[in-house]
Amino acid sequence: QKEVEQDPGPLSVPEGAIVSLNCTYSNSAFQYFMWYRQYSRKGPELLMYTYSSGNKEDGRFTAQVDKSSKYISLFIRDSQPSDSATYLCAMSDVGNQFYFGTGTSLTVIP
Amino acid sequence: NAGVTQTPKFQVLKTGQSMTLQCAQDMNHNSMYWYRQDPGMGLRLIYYSASEGTTDKGEVPNGYNVSRLNKREFSLRLESAAPSQTSVYFCASSGGARDPFFGPGTRLTVL
After folding, report:
1. Would you call A43 and B104 a contact, using CB atoms and an 8 Å cutoff?
2. To 5 degrees, how large is the angle CA A11–CA A15–CA A20?
C-alpha cells in the first residue's frame, strides 16, 4: 500500500463549478500537508500548506485536513479554465522526506 | 530571486552516455531533493540531502549519483544512461519539513 493515495481522474467540470480533490494516507505521523498545482510541462508550484488538522482558505481555494480519517481535501470554488492543471497532494512528518500523491488531472471547460 | 534553477532544460542521450544535471537554489534552504516524474507514477524521490555534506538514497536511487557541492548546489549524475531513465527530473529545496519549492524540470530522453 502506498503512503499516499490520490485518484488520478481525469476530472472535467464546467466553468464556475466547485471542485473537490482528495487524498488519503496511511501514516499517522504526517503533520504537514500541501497541495501543489502543476501546469503541463512545468514544475509543481505550491498552492496551499496546512499544519495538522483543520481548514485553511486562500481566495477560491480551501484546504481541509481530517487527521482522524487520514483524509485531506482541496476545494476550488468558482472554477476557471486557468485552473486546468494536475493537482498533487503532499505530506510529511517532522523528517526531511515528502510523500506525494500521483496527481489528479483537472480540466475546467469554458 | 530565482528560487530553484535547473540546467539543462532538455537533453537527449544515447544508451551508455553520462551526464550531470545541475540544480541551484538561492533561498538558503538546508534540504535539497532530486525527483523523477513518470506518467502514472507521480514524483519519486531519487536522492536527497538534508544538509550540506550529507546525502541519502530515496525510493529509486539505482543508476544515479549525487553531489551536494555546497549549500546552494545539488547535482545528479547518470554514469551510464539507460532508456528506463527517460523521464522528467525535478530538483526541489526546503527549509524544513514543509513546502518544498521545485525547479522547472529537465526533460531527459535516453535512446
Report:
1. yes
2. 45
Per mean pLDDT, which range of A6-10, A42-46, B62-66 is the poorest?
Answer: A6-10
Read off the pLDDT band of B42 (50, 70, 90): confident
Nearest CA in chain B to A8: B40
| CB–CB contact B50 A45 (8 Å) | no
pLDDT greater at residue B45 or residue B99: B45
Residues of B in contact with A31 (CB under 8 A): 97
Q: Do B99 and A34 touch (CB under 8 A)?
A: yes
Cell readout for B21 is 544535471
Q: To which residue does cell 501546469 refer?
A: A39
Per-residue pLDDT tens over the stretch B100-111:
999 999 999 999
Give the burial class of A7: count Cβ atoms within 10 A of its Cβ; 0-12 exposed, 13-18 middle, 19 or more buried. middle
